[in-house]
Design a protein that fits this description.
The chain is an alpha/beta fold. It contains six helices and six strands. The protein is elongated, with a radius of gyration of 27 Å.
């Protein structure tokens, strides 16, 4: 199978070259169940688990028996902090000692990352520029977004290499752009955006993870 071709655009949104996909499409088979498993694990690992309820031993008060055991005609009780009392302890409530983290094999996470990258490139949900503007002013990047027709209110993900850190100044004030380094890219954040924007060097760096 011949490698896929990715169109490179200039600042006006016109064709400025092509980038060949070095990896064979057939080598990466997209499996939604694998991607879902990695996304769930990522969300679980970032879950704080800070919700906490007190059991009857932790609720203040209740040291005295409400009334004597016999002779009152009422049901016997030993503490007003019993779970059946209002203001009492909670049974089987959330505890902050629980760890929600999940461990996945690195190979599985790499495979899911390759699947997501392939899916976005193959379905045309990535805009690849020949390069970013040299002027890092916000108005320059705002005009660039209009020329590329990236004006949706839904945010776009801009992926930058380590050498493109100065580009962050021009993008960070645009309300519909979120910025991430290519080395920090992960399945969860990638799927959170419907469209990605990057330069050719960033695309080449990202495509290396498809294997």
């Amino acid at each position: 199978m011949s490698p896929a071709v990715i169109k490179i655009l200039n600042h006006k949104g016109e064709a400025a070259g092509e980038l060949a996909w070095t990896a064979d499409f057939d080598k990466v088979v997209i499996k939604p169940t694998v991607v879902h498993q990695v996304v769930v694990a990522y969300a679980a690992n970032h879950r704080q688990g800070s919700a906490h309820t007190k059991n009857r031993s932790e609720v203040a008060g209740g040291g005295k028996k409400p009334w004597k055991q016999k002779g009152t005609g009422r049901a016997r009780h030993g503490s007003i902090r019993s779970p059946i009392w209002v203001g009492g302890g909670v049974v089987f409530g959330p505890r902050n000692t629980r760890n929600y983290g999940q461990r996945l094999p690195d190979k599985l996470k790499s495979l899911a990352t390759a699947m997501v990258i392939k899916d976005y490139f193959a379905t045309g949900r990535v805009t690849v520029l020949a390069d970013w503007p040299t002027d890092s002013k916000t108005k320059v990047f705002s005009q660039l977004a209009r020329d590329l027709k990236l004006t949706s209110r839904r945010p776009y993900l801009a992926l930058l290499t380590d050498q493109e850190k100065t580009i962050r100044r021009g993008l960070q004030n645009l309300p519909n752009f979120e910025i991430m380094g290519t080395k920090q890219f992960n399945v969860y954040d990638g799927l959170s955006y419907r469209h990605w924007v990057m330069s050719r060097p960033a695309a080449e760096e990202l495509l290396k993870r498809v294997k």
